[in-house]
Amino acid sequence: MAEMGSDSISPQQGSVYTCPMHPEIRLAQPGNCPICGMTLEPVMPSLEEEENPELVDFRHRFWWTLPFTVVVTAIAMFGQRIFPAGLPNQSWIEFALGSPVVLYAGWPFFKRCVQSLASRSPNMWTLIGIGTSAAYAYSVVGTVAPQVFPPSFIEHGRIGVYFEAAAVIISLTLLGQILELKARSQTSAAIKSLLGLAPKTARRIRSDGGEEDVPLTHVHVGDVLRVRPGEKVPVDGVVMEGESAVDESMLTGEPVPVTKRAGDKVIGATMNSSGSLVIRSEKVGSQTVLSQIVQMVAQAQRSRAPMQRLADVVAGYFVVIVVGIAILTLLGWGFFGGERSWVFGFVNAVSVLIIACPCALGLATPMSIMAATGRGATQGILFRDAAAIEAMRTIDTLIVDKTGTLTEGRPAFDRAVPAAGRTERDVLQLAASIDQGSEHPLAQAIVARAVKEGLALDKPESFESSSGIGVRGVVRGQHIALGNTALMDIDKVEWKALSQQAEQLRGEGASVMYLAAEGKLAGLIAVSDPVKSTTAEALQTLRDAGMTVVMATGDGVTTAKSVAARLGIAEVHGEVKPQDKLVLVNQLKAQGKKVAMAGDGINDSPALAAADVGIAMGTGTDVAINSAHITLVKGDLRGIARARILSDETVRNMRQNLAFAFFYNALGIPLAAGLLYPFTGHLLSPMIAALAMSLSSVSVITNALRLRRGR
């Protein structure tokens, strides 16, 4: 798999903290989000990190103050039954019991409330802080200076106080935060499981032939390593000796072990099952496939889904509206509520403030995205951002490249056909010499065959790659061009003398390139690239899902049609340049199609970037992967079908979460305001409102975590 770009998040950035709801926040130390007040999390989890210090703190505050909450609530609710004549100084006793809960256990919440007001970013802590402090302050005044209240506020011989309500709200909010922090920690489980795949040591073969076990961090590029049966491959490399079946399922999602022989690439953290392998390390540290996957997953988890915009817009005005509703509730009950109207108005206003906390709304989509990207990574599907997850389900047209996408991308040399006055060896030698500077799989096949036949290759004096149509350069003083007919036409080379042989080879499924020297046709090069064994199944699955598949390739039209016919692809575009693929994408989008482009080469990158969803094969080039929205680690088109299923499930999950959050507030606020009192005769206690508020956030997170257990 090619390197996935230098702009990814590095594992060394574990000291950077961000907000689950506002990923644009980046701080160098733990704390709270300046926008919403939520606890910041490490951008990159690590296996060594200790338990969340805020979780430890909240748990300590909760358990130490819970007995006070229980006792003050029991006295407030059952005091009259236990003491029919009245408990002397009951208000002062409740004050003594409730104050530690409010002032100690609730202190972090009040700090966040003040911070939200200072930064003019009202959030859930604004509502909790105002509601709880109002209940507590009202009760303190009622205890210390009861004479300031009118007689209508007197209940059972004293001013009614709400220390128990304030204490229960704080305790339940703490409990909710504890449950939420524990649940949120599970969303990083996918990254931690990936980090845990890497072995801790590697067995290095020294230059004197001896062997030693060294820490993985001490392995360098070029080191020779031994991988024994049952051991994990330590780093990305190439097999030098041995043969074995390697299980790559932990990174690619492909359950069938892959046989590795000399010359084959191996991926770090995969499991060597049977034979012994000697490998040469090629990528270590943050450059390995495993590290790149971890970086991409972390980056995607912290991105913002388009669906979140609605929630953000609503939440931006929500807190201000809720405060307004609470004031209207207080005034409405106060002026029109009859006996003890202001007391009822005050209690209901506090209930509105508490139950309307928008935490569930803010968590609705980020939690789904984090769970989905983690699950995708375990199946070999890497989403670049949340928008890619949301868009994948809408795709109805898929454009696929041929080489490396439908085919293995490891083509083998077929034959050389010389023009008059040339020999096969001369054609192969010239073609291989100019292709030494190309990274295209077809070029590599030509060079490999020339080396195998012992041909002496000349170093090109100049080299130019015309992506999608071929290469040019100067070899032995001759101007050489190797590519398709489009390149020949540009260079004004008469190529039709060998067109009949070329068509015959293309009809057999081979890719044909014309070779020209000094502006004259020198011969043909034919290279065959077998279709992947999984391609036919993948395309049928995509067609069954309602997708139209279109092939667009730089290969000749005859070759493209031959491969397309075998795979049941009706629409074929051959000999297309990179700009032609880009034009095709834009044409289909202009027709109202939702277009995905799947490819693996540099020539695919413009179309990958322009498509609604660009899908890169993980076996392809860096440019293609960096241009794409989704990367398939294994390069298996079946991953597209899996990505679509995951997209459907994720969007459905986000909609469920948003619907619940909206429904919860739509029902909870009128209930807390007492609008149903004329029909039910019941009011919502602030304590019940606090419980409902906490459970709403936990329920959203729990629903999002269901995505981890999908197909």
What would you say this structure looks like, in words?
The structure is a single chain. The protein is an alpha+beta fold. The chain is 48% helix and 16% strand. It has 24 helices and 26 strands. It has a 7-stranded mixed β-sheet, with helices on both faces. Strand 3 (154-155) and strand 4 (158-159) form a beta hairpin. The relative contact order is 0.11. Mean pLDDT is 80; it is low at 1-14.
What's a concise summary of this model?
With 711 residues, the protein is of the alpha+beta class. The protein contains 24 helices and 26 strands.
Tally the beta strands: 26
Q: What structural category characterises the helix and strand content? A: alpha+beta
Mean pLDDT: 80
| Residue share in β-strands | 15-25%
Low-confidence stretches: 1-14
Give the radius of gyration: 34 Å
State the distance separating the first and last CA atoms: 25 Å
Biggest sheet: strand arrangement: 14-26-25-24-15-22-23
- How would you describe the shape? elongated
- Main sheet makeup: 7 strands, mixed
Total number of helices: 24
Question: Portion of residues in helices?
Answer: 40-55%
